[in-house]
Specification:
507 residues; mainly beta; 6 helices; 8% helix
């Protein structure tokens, strides 16, 4: 009978690390370093190989920047290889801790940055491959890179990917004390994230469809929506977004549910259901879901749904485009060319309040479409006045209400178009015909105008009959033998083009 034995063999030698550490795709090691090895042989036990190296000359490569190491950096590291017939490995240094049961079929865990917290100890015994990431900060888009690595890697099954990050930047927004997880099973990637201002989960299936759910999430910077490299770029996208009890700047979202689809040049926001403090979007009917689409190649736009908007200057997506206090409209439109509104077809039934028309918006799409909202163009032409004074560089339309039907040949006012300002009330009836290129062009309208005249705007007298603009209200009252506030119901025919209307007084 052999006596008990315990033998140690010491060896110091340079080694090619590619042969020592398996390639996990997420983490690749190359280069040559000096390794000190001790082989321990104990009776009735598998031999154990203990290896030490400072890893000088060894390089770490990864798609994840926090896993990278130059070959010049010194990093004292211990390696333990057990069961030499089916080698398992344990690696530990200041950057990471790795325990794998097998080189050939990696199972075990990888801890990066910090030691695994006690609440996550379960991953040490979990099946598959498990990761823990503990960092003080993480670079932008790194989590995206992590998910891309996980979904494209065929060499392992990602059972758990847990992370604690003190400072995280996503789409130019800063978040603190982030806790989350990723998992990959059967090519289905699932993730959860939790923090003070960012909470939600997502799932990406093997078809590429992504479902994102956010709750109690608050964003201050939305510049990523305009970025060519952001989610609205020409990359393929098929996703559903659900948001509850969250905010984007001053927009407080109670509930949001929509689908995002990007296929080459066609981008669509479909099945929109939004409830918030400043804006709501809903379907026109159960069979007609709200949506918006842009065909970037052909410059074609489609918009459908019921849209309710309050205080446009507080809404991040539109505050730089318009200034109004209230809009409620049933919209079902499609057109070509955002500014020219070429080949516009569909219906628009709306109420608009407190629209401020400035030099910036005077030639906007909506005003060019109607051709009549701008008092500077209409009343100025009636009175042959030069209305370049400050009052007309910024005109406020208190209320605009109407129903417009756009067909292949014309835009028809299906109901009278009512426009009210502090100075006048207008009622428009008729249609705007399209030209041969499909653009709105020729006016065939009638105007019922009621002007409010006071001491502060005596020039309105010129509109009513050529009275000098310097005349006061007393002179005007004497001429018309009535109180100036009772003057009303002056009718005009408006023809010509949108850019050059012809106005003819009927009474």
């Amino acid at each position: 009978m052999l006596a008990k034995y315990e033998l140690d063999f010491l060896l110091q030698t340079p080694l090619r690390t590619e042969k020592l550490i398996p390639d996990l795709s997420i983490f690749k090691v190359s280069g040559e370093g000096v390794f000190s090895a001790v082989l321990s042989v104990v009776q009735n036990s598998s031999p154990v190989l203990n290896i030490f190296s400072d890893l000088k000359g060894v390089e770490f490569e990864s798609k994840l920047p926090f896993l990278e190491k130059s070959k010049f950096k010194v990093m004292p590291t211990n390696f333990i290889v057990s069961n030499l017939l089916e080698p398992g490995i344990f690696i530990k240094n200041s950057l990471l801790e790795i325990k794998l049961s097998s080189f050939l079929d990696p199972m075990g865990y990888v801890a990066i940055g910090k030691e695994i917290p006690e609440q996550y100890y379960f991953i040490k015994q979990a099946t598959g491959l498990n990761f823990y990431l503990g960092l003080d900060a993480i670079a932008p888009n790194t989590l995206t890179s992590m998910s891309q690595v996980a979904t494209t890697d065929q060499t392992f099954v990602l059972n758990n990917f847990l992370f604690d990050i003190e400072n995280l930047e996503i789409f130019n927004n800063q978040f603190k004390k982030i806790h989350g997880s990723l998992s990959l099973q059967d090519r289905i990637l699932k993730g959860k994230i939790k923090s003070y201002k960012l909470n939600g989960n997502f799932e990406k299936d093997n078809s590429g469809f992504i479902k994102i759910q956010l709750e109690d999430t608050h964003l201050e910077d939305i510049s990523f929506l305009k970025s060519q490299s952001g989610p609205l770029s020409k990359r393929a996208l098929n996703a559903r977004l659900i948001v509850k009890n969250s905010s984007v700047q001053e927009l407080k979202i109670h509930f949001l549910d929509l689908y995002l689809q990007q296929n080459k040049n066609l981008f669509t926001v479909n099945n929109i259901d939004l409830s918030s403090n400043l804006m709501s979007i809903s379907s026109l009917s159960n069979k007609s879901k709200a949506y918006f689409s842009v065909d970037n190649k052909n410059d074609i736009y489609k918009l459908r749904g019921n849209y309710l908007v309050k205080d446009s200057l507080k809404i991040p997506f539109i505050k730089n485009l318009s200034n109004f206090s209230y809009f409620n409209g049933d919209i079902n439109l499609q057109w070509q060319d955002l500014k020219r509104l070429q080949d516009i077809e569909g219906t628009l039934d709306f109420i608009l309040k407190d629209l401020v028309v400035t030099n910036k918006t005077t030639n906007s799409v909506a005003l060019n479409l109607l051709g009549v909202l701008n008092l500077k163009n209409i009343l100025g032409k009636l009175a042959n006045l030069d209305l370049t004074i400050d009052e007309f560089t910024s005109t406020k339309l208190n209320r605009v209400e109407g129903e417009i039907v756009f067909s292949k040949l014309k835009a028809r006012l299906a109901a009278p178009l009512f426009i009210e300002t502090n100075a006048a009330k207008m009622k428009w009836i008729g249609q705007i015909n399209k030209n041969s290129t499909g653009e709105l062009s020729e006016l065939d309208l009638s105007l019922d105008l009621r002007v409010r005249i006071g001491e502060n705007i005596p020039w309105y007298a010129a509109v009513l009959g050529g009275i000098p603009a310097v005349a006061g209200s007393a002179i005007i009252s004497e001429i018309f033998e009535t109180n100036i506030n009772d003057l009303s119901n002056y009718q005009y025919e408006v023809s010509g083009s949108l850019n050059a209307p012809k106005i003819n007084r009927m009474n």
